[in-house]
Design goal:
This protein has a 5-stranded parallel β-sheet. The chain has a 4-stranded parallel β-sheet with strand order 2-1-3-4, sandwiched between helices. The mean pLDDT is 96. 46% of the residues lie in helices and 13% in strands.
Amino acid sequence: MNLKGRNFLTLKDYTPEEITYLLDLAAELKEKKKKGIPVDIHRGKNVALIFEKTSTRTRCSFEVAAHDLGMGTTYLDPVSSQIGKKESIADTARVLGQIYEGIEYRGYGQEIVEELARYAGVPVWNGLTNEYHPTQMLADLLTIREHFGHLKGIRLVYMGDARYNMGNSLMIACSKMGLDFVACAPEKYFPAKELVEQCREYAAASGSAITLTDDVMAGTKGADVVYTDVWVSMGEPDEVWEERIHDLTPYRVTSAVMKNAGEKAIFLHCLPSFHDLKTKIGKEMGERFGISEMEVTDEVFEAPCSKVFDEAENRMHTIKAVMAATLGV
């Protein structure tokens, strides 16, 4: 399969066959990494990494993956780039496209990464926007496939705020790849109706189903994967903490939830997680609201069913597959 020159902006742009190819390539590259087999097939190339939103996993994954492929990287943090400030997105894209073989963008609106892709002339990869997080989806799918041996027929339940990049992207990924997707949240936190309808069309083709429910026990019953994310995303105002904690605490992933899902169920989280008070924000929220954990209990996070660190590792292998494929394997 030839994906050379393609952008990677949202899984809506990719067929199930193309997604499977990327997962297979990631698994192959992971095996070679474990065996110490070099894969520096893009030696001499360079990629730009634009981070308007900082990240541990995404930055490390792109940098290590690029290095393994033989490429150099330039990291542009929120104060190192003039994108959108002194230089337009279109001009930035054309400048970087003349210097680099590929561009990663992690930041705010999807329209920014779309405009970069329109003008760059080289592959552009979405490291996260407000609307979509496609590289995380490949890591999630690979982790699920590694654990269960297959994807079709798996029941994945996303608990929490399903209106933004994680809820949107998991619904797309599941519906395209034949996993049943459940958004378990208060109704006002459901994904946008237009995207739900689009994903129901994908689900009809793949033989899967999409369910939206505010009932925790019904929603998680028999789940294979229980997934959650932080309740307040980077860039959102502090004022929303109180509302989210009030609305979403009933949707915290607890031992009771995992027991209701069943013995075979695993827990996933894209990280970072507020499962204790060992972070600055976690400590502040704990003191302010009298809580010791938020979207997931520490008991679940540290339990054998939690595969969050396998999932985090797979960010690097799947990102490597995306870069290798779109630059030409």
